[in-house]
Automatic annotation (TrEMBL):
CDD domains, sorted: fer2 (cd00207)
Name of the protein described by the UniProt record: Xanthine dehydrogenase YagT iron-sulfur-binding subunit
UniProt keywords, alphabetically: 2Fe-2S, Iron, Iron-sulfur, Metal-binding, Oxidoreductase
One of the record's GO molecular function terms: 2 iron, 2 sulfur cluster binding
InterPro entries (UniProt xref): 2Fe-2S-bd, 2Fe-2S-bd_dom_sf, 2Fe-2S_ferredoxin-like_sf, 2Fe-2S_ferredoxin-type, 2Fe2S_fd_BS, Aldehyde_Oxdr_Iron-Sulfur, Beta-grasp_dom_sf
One Pfam family in the UniProt entry: Fer2_2
Signal peptide region: none
Xref: Gene3D superfamilies: 3.10.20.30, [2Fe-2S]-binding domain (1.10.150.120)
Domain 2Fe-2S ferredoxin-type: 17-93
Species annotation: Micromonospora parathelypteridis
Superkingdom of source: Bacteria
Pathway: Alkaloid degradation; nicotine degradation
Length: 182
């Protein structure tokens, strides 16, 4: 008899994997259906609800996290690809008792309104600032022979993958610019 209760465990084991990875500096081990995304793993299996489910198609950026130091849309990454890798979510950007400089700048510049996109904006901004520090150009970088000048246009281009329905963009740009000059 196929599909009966006696086959449920076998089917689950055949279509799941044990994944060991680091989240916000802590080792985590979970058994997941092979189709589970990183976003769903964080929210439903690990209780980290900072990354938000927005469009579920990688278009809005509300689920942005850092994977091995690079920005990714967690709704597009299968968790089975995480074995041995490192993930940082918005919950891991700062220590337990203080905000990161980027988080403090977002507050100081009122770079959020409803706050739904803010975790993704923060992770994307952290990743973007690290990219600039590594000398990676963007589509609007004028001089490729030296470090990118972090103009408002440069920040907007690099943050273009993160949408804000409340239109807090000028405040987000100001917060990122302030953090970059510290």
């Amino acid at each position: 008899m196929q599909g009966g209760p006696e086959n449920a465990t076998t089917t689950d084991e055949r279509h799941s994997s044990q994944v060991v990875f680091e989240v916000n500096g802590a080792a985590r081990e979970v058994r997941l259906d092979n189709r589970t995304t990183l976003l769903d793993t964080l929210r439903e299996h690990l209780g980290l609800t900072g990354a938000k489910k927005g469009c579920d198609h990688g278009q809005c950026g509300s689920c942005t996290v850092l994977l091995d130091g690079r920005r990714v849309k967690s709704c597009l990454v299968f968790a089975v690809t995480l074995d041995g890798r490192s993930v940082v979510t918005v919950e891991g950007l700062a220590g337990p008792d203080e905000l990161s400089p980027l988080q403090a700048a977002f507050i100081a510049h009122d770079a959020f309104q409803c706050g739904y996109c803010t975790p993704g904006q923060l992770c994307s901004a952290r990743g973007m600032l690290d990219e600039v520090a590594r000398g990676w150009p963007s589509a609007v970088t004028g001089d490729l022979s030296g470090p990118a000048e972090l103009t408002d246009a440069e920040i907007r281009e690099r943050m273009a993958g993160n949408l804000c329905r409340c239109a807090a963009y000028p405040h987000i740009v100001a917060a990122v610019r302030e953090t970059a000059t510290r």
